[in-house]
Amino acid sequence: MARFAAGEQVIVRRGNPPGHLRTPWYIRGKHGVVERLCGEFRNPEELAYGRSGEPKRMLYRVRFEQKHVWPDYAGPAGDTIDIELYEHWLDAAR
Amino acid sequence: MGGLPAGPVVPAEHDYQLWEKRVDALMVLCSSKRMFTVDELRKGIEALPPDAYDRMSYYERWITSICNALIHRGIISIEEVRGKLADIEQRPPETAGEKG
Amino acid sequence: MPHDEVHEHHHDHPHVHGGADHHPHRPDADDTLTYCRRLEIAVRELLIEKGHLTADEIRGAVERMDARGPHLGARVVAKAWTDPAFKVRLLADGTAACQEAGITFDQSTRLIVVENTPDTHNMVVCTLCSCYPRMVLGIPPDWYKSRAYRSRAVREPRAVLREFGTELPDDMAVRVHDSTADMRYLVLPMRPAGTEGWSEERLAALVTRDAMIGVTQAKAPDSVT
Lengths: 94, 100, 225
Hints:
The structure holds three protein chains of three kinds.
Chain A: E1 9-12, E2 31-41, H1 44-47, E3 57-65, H2 66-69, E4 80-86, E5 90-92
Antiparallel strand pairs in A: 1-2, 1-5, 2-3, 3-4
Chain B: H1 18-32, H2 38-46, H3 52-55, H4 58-72, H5 78-90
Helix pairs in contact in B: 1-4, 2-4
Chain C: H1 35-49, H2 55-67, H3 70-82, H4 84-92, H5 94-100, E1 110-115, E2 120-125, H6 134-137, H7 147-155, H8 157-163, E3 173-178, E4 183-188, H9 200-204, H10 209-213
Parallel strand pairs in C: 1-4, 2-3
């Protein structure tokens, strides 16, 4: 059961928990819009320690505005970046 | 490393050598046989010394991590790897095992 | 198994260096057995001796790798250019459409195909490692795995595109895809003007690997004979 739907505003959790992480540092704390749901996958943060990675986690593709991600971004306002993020890294925006 | 400063993208490429393809094959086969997960290999590469990225090539980092993961999982032992490496050093280069 | 490449994002130290991203590789003729090449032999022989793998399995995996390359992606792109119904299926479910076109997926990763239009240009990177649509493009080139590409493609994509000779107008949005998890991305380039009536085979010759990564556009029709 997915917590977010396509089109919903989300914010990526901040922080640097221990372990093996698949959330790029540059996107933490940024807000974006869910572009699509990718399905459920085993959690790589658990797989990295040789565990099962279960329960599976919902994976989302989230679209961010480049001007928001990089305050000094040199391109036009319409440029975006899409990133795959697991549900436990996302919160609802506001 | 997304977003960090870096120099121009040099459009370098090379034809992969047989040993590099075999490292790739080991990763694909061992992970599909559940000897380790690719995430374990990634974690192993993160644990390499900080200069490893510049000092080692892609498949050099990869075989190092594969070997470590197999040892960690108890599939091969450190002693076995040492013994095998010593044995390979004694072989004439042309029959050392790369052609095999 | 969700991923098929390895990453090194631990070494995120700021580090400016011009052009040192690619590793010097010895020419094929040089048989110098470096430590890591000996390690490959050692690990392979131990796994075979202990019954975990066979030499045939390794040979088979190398052959499958050699059989995959950008010609597969080019075939899919050319089919999408000539068959509108296939294009709809490809954009809706890249994995299923590629399987329909005879491409095999031996990993659990899935393919998302993103379409270039007059308004949007797509470009693919993996900042955490070197995730790449191997099922349709084969093994990635060195530059795709380089520190420079992985660092800069997300932050200054237009500058990187210019280095590949791709100059885009400001009213065309650049959409970067950082493949951080289980999806792989293939760019469907725009079909070049002046190719009306071309066969799929002829069109496929215009579709380069770099155009399917999204750092260039498809070749112009007059560039091929």
